[in-house]
Each structure stands twice: as structure tokens, then as C-alpha cells.
Amino acid sequence: MSKTTAALATALTLAVGLAACETATPYQPNVRGQATSGGYSETRLEPDRWRVNFSGNAMTSRETVEGYLLFRAAELTLQNGDDWFAIADRHTDAKQRSYVQPDPLYRPWYGPGFGYWRPSWRYRGRGFGWRTWDPFFGDPFFADRYNVQTIESFEASAEIVTHKGAKPADDPRAFDAHAVADSLKPKIQYPAPPK
What is the pLDDT of residue 15? Predict the structure, then answer.
């Protein structure tokens, strides 16, 4: 097996392994160092007012992030002995990060320790005769291809005010916490138990 084929096989194996390990953020508290990044957090602003957040990783859809935020608002309302909540403010942010990686198939035999080693090239083009390439002048050469990957993740937050009693029927920003929790609970994915 050639070095290029071995390098490609290793890169593909690592990519598949990493992809299998990466899963969408489950419904969990957002704590540093957990197996899957992201989760919910909240801050009490007043006795009946909360700022609730849910942060998803790159594998978590916007719909899931917003659904988990709504579920956390209902759960928090019920945990504090209230029956319904009203949304005072909400928004969802999308974060994008781009990663640039060199072409995985270009691995010179002389090793990576010579990063600035870029000789001038002379190569034969199709029907054009001999052509030259210089690392500091002219167009990029095949050895300088890069893989650019953009990863998007979502974070949603809402400020809620919790209340006791029956939800007002005429307020579109009011939610019955019992109904929301019952409706969304079957769709919630919790973290896998530790092995």
C-alpha cells in the first residue's frame, strides 16, 4: 500500500470515527466537560422572572434548540410551583465558524518540518507545452488546495415571567406550562446513561 493510500485510509477512518462520536446536543444542563457540548441554563432575574438559554452544538437543528428552550421554560415554571409563563423577550442566534484544512492527499515525502519550502515548478499542461509555477507569483498550484468547512450552531434565549392560576386566553405570549411539558416530553432526547 502506498503512503498516499495509507494516509487516505487513516484520514477516512478517523473522520468516520469522529462523526460517529458527534451527536446532537441532548436535553441536559449546560455544564463544562460533559460528553456532548451544549444544553440549557437559566438565571433568575426577579422572583418570577427568568432568562432561559439553550445552546446546541453543530449537529443540533435550530428547531430542536428552540423546542428544548420552550420545554425548559415550562419545566422551570412547574419546578417553581407556577402554572403558566409569558415570554417577555426571545431570540435565536446562529454562530458560524469556518475551518481551513490543507488537502489531506498532499503529504510530501520530505515531511511537514519544511513549511516554507516551496520550489518553483515546471509542468507539462494539456496541449499547452511546458508551463511554470512559482510559489510567490502566479496562480495557486495543486499542492496548495485547502478544504474549507463552515459549521453552524444555534443558541436560543428567552426571558419569561411565571404565574400561578389559569393562563389568560387572550395573550398569545402566554403558555400553559403543564400543556407544553406534556406535549413536548415525548420528543425530548435525554443524554445516554454513562457506561
Answer: 47
